[in-house]
What we know:
Elements: H1 3-23, H2 26-41, H3 45-49, H4 58-64, H5 70-81, E1 95-101, E2 105-111, H6 116-134, E3 143-146, E4 154-156, E5 159-162, H7 164-168, H8 174-177, E6 180-181, H9 184-187, H10 192-203, E7 208-212, H11 215-229, H12 233-236, E8 242-246, H13 251-261, E9 266-273, E10 276-280, E11 293-295, E12 301-307, E13 330-336, E14 343-354, E15 357-364, H14 378-389, E16 395-404, E17 413-422, H15 427-441, H16 443-450, E18 458-461, H17 466-473, H18 491-496
Parallel strand pairs: 1-5, 3-6, 3-7, 7-8, 8-9, 17-18
Antiparallel strand pairs: 1-2, 4-5, 9-10, 10-11, 11-15, 12-13, 13-14, 14-15, 16-17
Amino acid sequence: MSVKSVAAKIFANIIHRKTQKWVQNPIETQQKVFQNLLASAKNTQFGKDHNFSKIKNFEDFANQVPIRDYEDLRTYVDRVVKGEEDILWKGKPIYFAKTSGTTSGAKYIPLTKESMPFHIEAARNAILNYIHETGKTAFVDGKMIFLQGSPILEEKNGINLGRLSGIVAHFVPKYLQKNRMPSWETNCIEDWETKVDAIVAETFNENMTVISGIPSWVQMYFEKLEQKGGKAVGDIFKNFNLFIYGGVNYEPYRAKFENLIGRKVDSIELFPASEGFFAYQSRNFGSRNEDGMLLLLNSGIFYEFVKSDEFFTNNPRRYTIGEVGLNVNYVLIISTNAGLWAYNIGDTIQFTSLKPYRVIVSGRIKHYISAFGEHVIGKEVECALKEAMENTSIRVNEFTVAPQIAPESGLPYHEWFIEFENEPENPAAFALKIDNEMRKQNSYYDDLIVGKVLKTLVVSKVSKNGFQEYMKSIGKLGGQNKIPRLSNDRKIADLLKTF
């Protein structure tokens, strides 16, 4: 065992002990975070406008601070972007994470000197937790690649801005810099296809042991490796045994990845966003992550939860960590040490465990289908597809679902756009299998099928690399961009028809 491996084990044990302190005291930990946030921001413009100095408890906070999304908070954010101090958080941010919104255009998410370390530490701790739980350390002596956006940053009123993944590239610890790939020059390539080609060339003969990124874009990297080497990725990188991912559910990709790699590898699921790093998988790394991810309660974020079926009602109840239940769909609301207050990030989650608190990402509150009152969520379509593919040779590269409200003839239906790697021998039977699984997942959908309001879903085949071409056509190829699993309209569907 190398010196680096020994040191990694020692460090992993230290971090595990620290983590257990807050894991075993979740409610007290969140209360402390809550109080620290209010105390730190009471003299900001937002704190003054919302009477932070008079808030004594969560009930006061909920009465004073309404739930907001980016547009609702924009008047404050715009002042921060202009360079004003002490608006949402004390002083100025050190970075803006620039993201693209569907209605807001470019969004500027502040990152502060208090919040930035938690982004870095959470990713680090996810790997250290893996070491503690499995005892595996050999990967630390190999090369690691993190497929991410360009680290080249712009400047806006004295504050650097860029994609979060590009900002994080500036914080790689010294002990990892020799192991990390790709090179800085390659990482700075903006065009995604050119960048992936360069990464393939740069990594092909290296001892890659850890690969990380959003599955849909890692898949593109793997396919190019396979084309170059004429063999499975696992044969090219014989010591590759750990895949780290986030952004989308891995399960629809798992069979394809195992085929590309040529064997199973351990995986760690992460739940990061520009607004904060919320959770990571903490056990069962060699199989499907049905346990969920450990919710990080001591990371400068105070969490609230609103039941998704109540979210659009007037004054929905806001739950704190001690009040949540299992298998309920909640909208995740956060207040952070970057100055986001009662902020709706748009994700929905479900708790799979309360001791400790573990979550799965179930979808997006704005990404659903309820054209007929069915309110289908992302978790349901992903589970239905996974079950339909179980024990078959069918493999799927990518998919999305939209309603067809006004077909040329017959009843309306849900249309599934699927790019297959291995197609079903009987497409109609496969569509029926997905439909049956959907009826198990969602009772409202089942009622609509039984009542002949909807007919059985329709699968529309997307051509090879069609989703990549679609993303390229809208300027969102690669990086942190993802295909929505669900749309309640035909905007994506109609464009996909051309592919």
